[in-house]
Specification:
Radius of gyration: 18 Å
Oligomer: single chain
CATH superfamily: RNA polymerase sigma factor, region 2, helix turn helix motif
Number of helices: 8
Structural class: mainly alpha
CATH class: Mainly Alpha
Helix content: 55-70%
Length: 219
């Protein structure tokens, strides 16, 4: 299972979307889950198609390496499929699959602390799909280069956080989850979630301040 190139039609408003669209997505996902539970295995493929790119991006930002993120994404969906009969809809499916994936990613990072200093922009490729913006025909190439450099700097700063704070930042500032969704995914009190996000942002700001003070490069 490898992440596909994301298109506009594949994007979903949940998590972090408006209430009405999010409710519609939750209902559609619940119907797919019921079909899987009834024996329609192919219906699970639709759930994978909807969420694999976002789950992959979350895993990537937490674990820091593309190959590891792909393995964690696959493992998360396999675990979800194996436990699908246990899903009762107490939370949205996306909350459930994100919880599985984030927990796997945090656990992976705890076991791989000696690799924490490795760059997520290494030649092996960690990518930045969730930071990528659509190119405009009128875009100034120098602006694109500057944006790419900024993404690399943010990604490098993000990699310096521990897995727990990184997960909270990824879910809030990249995935756009609200505090309650993050609390549900991480299974933490909202106060703890807010504290982790605050401390994570503060640490990122400290990492990026020297970069921000550097004079702009002439192009």
């Amino acid at each position: 299972m490898r992440p596909r190139k994301q298109t506009t039609s594949d994007q979903t408003v949940a998590p972090g979307g408006d209430d009405a669209p999010a409710a519609a997505v939750r209902l559609a996902d619940a119907l797919l889950v019921r079909r899987v539970q009834a024996g329609e295995v192919h219906a699970f493929t639709e759930l994978v198609r909807k969420y694999q790119d976002r789950v992959f991006n979350a895993c990537l930002r937490i674990c820091g390496r593309r190959e590891d993120a792909a393995d964690l994404t696959q493992e998360a969906f396999l675990k979800a499929f194996s436990a699908i009969d246990e899903f009762r809809g107490a939370s949205a499916f996306y909350t459930w699959i994100f919880r599985i994936a984030v927990n796997l990613s945090i656990s992976h990072q705890r076991k791989e602390r000696h690799r924490r200093t490795a760059s997520i922009d290494d030649p092996g490729g960690s990518g930045d799909a969730d930071f990528r913006m659509p190119a405009s025909a009128d875009a100034d190439p120098s602006d694109a280069i500057a944006a790419q450099e900024t993404r690399a700097q943010v990604a490098a700063a993000l990699a310096t956080l521990d897995a727990e704070h990184r997960a909270a930042i990824v879910l809030r500032d990249i995935e756009g989850c609200d505090y309650q969704e993050i609390a549900d995914i991480l299974e933490l009190p909202i106060g703890t979630v807010k504290s982790r996000i605050f401390r994570g942002r503060l640490a990122l700001r400290r990492q990026l301040e020297p970069v921000e003070r550097q004079p702009a490069k002439k192009r």
